[in-house]
Amino acid sequence: MLTAKFKWFRLSPPQILVMGFAAIILIGAILLTLPISNTTGKPLRFIDALFTATSATCVTGLVVQDTGIYFSTFGQIVIMLLIQVGGLGFMTMATLFSLVLKRKISLRDRLILQEAMNQNTMEGIVRLIRKVLLFSLIIEGCAAVVLAIRWSFDMPVGQAIYFGIFHAVSMFNNAGFDLFGHFNSLTSYVNDPIVNIVVMFLIVSGGLGFIVLSDLVEYRKNRKLSLHSKVVLSMTGALILFGTIVIFIFEYSNPATLGSLDWGGKILASFFQSVTTRTAGANTIDLASMRQASQFFMVILMFIGASPGSTGGGIKTTTFTILVGAVVAMIRGRDDIVLFRYRLAQERIFKALTITFLALFLVLGVSMILSTTEDSDFLTILYETTSAFGTVGLSVGLTSHLTVVGKILISLTMFAGRLGPLTLAYALGPKKGKELYRHPEGKITIG
Asked: Which parts of the chain sit beneath pLDDT 70?
């Protein structure tokens, strides 16, 4: 593998991940600037190409150019490949080539894979990568077939197959790119149960994480789930259900969103909008027409995001669960956070707090700067920034009107959101050394 050949270039796993993603984005941006990549025959501005490549590689879905209309088939395929590589991770794809060529996976490569998949140990990491590739191929392939059959009733068969493949890759990787044009996403299929169910299945399966998918597949044999899988499944289900109820209540009488739909349509649309905040980026109703309460609530859901080891972003469902558990433990006067009869280590709690505060500082800081460079209200800016950090891709219309400074800031936010603020901090920060002493304990008043 590439890293095995350059052992002299001593970079930490987080640094290699940052540089790897940056290199993929740069290559994608160069390809998208080519006249063959768009339908106008003219080179795309580099800042727009860089923004699009970042959005695709970071599986976000925010766009400054209409993917279905502006980009040619070549450009769309480049975007789809960037989504696939970005969603699964460039180290996963490099491992695929090594496995195909029957080359040995070095210890350093395993360390990078451990960091990329957010694992606590290297044990079984190559086996997990095999499962990642297998699950992705099966899920995307089955969904592509179903979507192609459904869309063959609306368009030529060849186009339906192409649309099925593109959207299966995009939605499983929680990217949110679509080819229907005019920035309408899936609004034409708000009442279509087949499209809604297939897309929601892709979003949820991609957002659960490959560890959870592996546990679910092997459940019939093992008859048990890991603590991680139990937490992810329960919190994901709770967030989706709670989100559906809140959106349904807030938008029930809004004529621009749910008001014009029947009861079945209202429930389906509410459910879809709740699911898509798992960092997917597709929508079936006009997000800009939603009430401010609904938009702010979606900001919270997008900030939480998907689960560790998945194709999604955000602070992750497990981080949010630990925060909730800490609050409950404090209120009950307990010293430990207990989930499913397991006590969490203090290091897990510190990591959850660190990730949350770094994410808050990033989102609020970028939002404050954008409020001075962009001509829009603060909620719209906060919505767009959180969408970028959570690699969600949902937009209320600001992205296509961003200034150059805005595009750069949102691109950096998407990059930080995909890699994770903690990984980025490890990559940019100094190497940690061993503490040789501890300071005396002190007490301060809180509350």
From this structure: 1-14, 89-126, 128, 422-438, 443, 445-447
Q: Of 361, 368, 359, which is closest to residue 391 (Cα–Cα)?
A: 359
Enumerate residues 6+ apart whose C-beta is below 8 A from 19.
11
DSSP-derived secondary structure for 323-340: HHHHHHHHHTT-SS-EET
Tell me the per-residue pLDDT of 327-384, one tens digit each, with 9 for 90 and over. Answer: 999 898 888 888 888 898 888 888 889 889 999 999 999 999 999 999 999 999 999 9
Q: Are 87 and 172 in contact (CB under 8 A)?
A: yes
pTM, entire model: 0.88
CB 190 within 8 A of CB 265: yes
- Provide, for the chain, the percentages of residues in helix, strand and coil under a 3-state DSSP scheme, each rounded to the nearest 5: 65, 0, 35
Q: How many C-beta atoms lie closer than 10 Å to residue 416's C-beta? A: 24
Report the 10 Å Cβ neighbour count for 90. Answer: 19
Number of helices followed by number of strands (H, E) in the chain: 19, 2
Q: Computed over its alpha carbons, how large is the radius of gyration of the chain?
A: 22
In this structure, what token pair is assigned to residue 109? 């490569």
C-alpha distances in Å from residue 196, one per residue of 187, 270, 283: 10, 11, 10
Task: Compute the distance between CA of residue 214 and CA of residue 229 in angstroms, rounded to an integer.
Answer: 9
